[in-house]
Amino acid sequence: MRLRNDKPEAGNQPATDLIFGEWYPAVRTSELRPGSMTTTLLLGIPLVVGRKRDGALFAMRDLCPHRGIPLSAGWFDGDTVQCRYHGWKFEPCSGQCTEIPSLTQIDTLQPTKIYAGAFPCREADGFAWVYVPEAGMGRITAETALPPLPQVPKFSAQFRTAHLSADLPCNVDHGIIGLMDPAHGPFVHRAWWWRSAASIHEKTKRFEPLPDGFRMSSHAPSANSAPYKLLGVYGEKIETTIDFTLPNRRYEVIRAGHGENGKWFASLTTITPVTPSSCRIDVVACWNVFYNVPLVPQIAKFFGARFVRQDQETMIQQAEGLRFRPAMMLIDDADKPAKWYFALKQRRLTGQGEHPLREPVELHWRS
């Protein structure tokens, strides 16, 4: 299958169509102390995200509905966001206007009937997740049914957590198909502590459909990935499962044993569209392996950051080539997950079509 970078074709072309009606990670909650707010872009929408004095998170469109000045240019007292242009005040969780200072006793306008754009904002795994509704959904209230908040799977009460992020200069589709690409490891991530070119060998993996994605069925981890071998010291059979679900989520779970004494590592990686032509990779990982061993979190984050940086550098280099709008290809079997993603996304955007993976299949590639 060939792809052109300048003429979109349904189901097989990286495009700028974005999926709304979903939760996306906006900012790390460590940036949001009570009474503070910060700005970010999400799906091309300027947002101001903050934490009220009582601890509640909020996300507002960073535009005053009066004259369009960014609300982040104004003031936040821990309870109310005030526009610096005319002093309009807003309750940030609902977006409801509470005061218009210029009104007099003869004015009939009721400020409380005016709303600035506000989005549901929840905290999970160290991120402020923002629900970005589809156009025409109307104002969201506490009674509005929303999809479940994404979270990393966890299998014990005690665990360690680490976060990584990197900006990618490509549209979300290029970021996602890079995320799920099974064949780039020995090249992009070539390192003594991960994989070498000489370690390439043929692999066979079973995939099965999920309602809005697909799963690489439970299997033994790649023998040529050194970190996976760490769980082997516990003498248990090691199994890993990898899920991809729309709009942008890759879950990986590695387990050695089950029950109270089982050891595990789990991660959630997301590729979030910032603008139609740029995105951000966020990784949150949780584990109970070597839980009480000093410096393990620092070491894990050091090598994890290098791993993500390798992906980032590759995307920067790819962006140089994409400026010339080259023809591109998707091949079997290594690129089959990318084909499934484009078909799933097209089905989601149009509401038509069948799941591209109708039954479990085996794929074969070398990596």
TrEMBL record:
**Pfam families recorded:** Rieske, VanA_C
Q: Which domain of life is it from?
A: Bacteria
Could you say which residues form the signal peptide? none
Q: Gene3D superfamilies from the entry?
A: Naphthalene 1,2-dioxygenase Alpha Subunit, Chain A, domain 1, Rieske [2Fe-2S] iron-sulphur domain
Q: What keywords are annotated for this sequence in UniProt?
A: 2Fe-2S, Iron, Iron-sulfur, Metal-binding, Oxidoreductase
Q: Which InterPro entries match?
A: Cholesterol_7-desaturase (IPR050584), Rieske_2Fe-2S (IPR017941), Rieske_2Fe-2S_sf (IPR036922), VanA_C_cat (IPR044043)
Query: What sequence ranges are listed for the domain Rieske?
Result: 24-130
The name of this protein is Rieske 2Fe-2S domain-containing protein
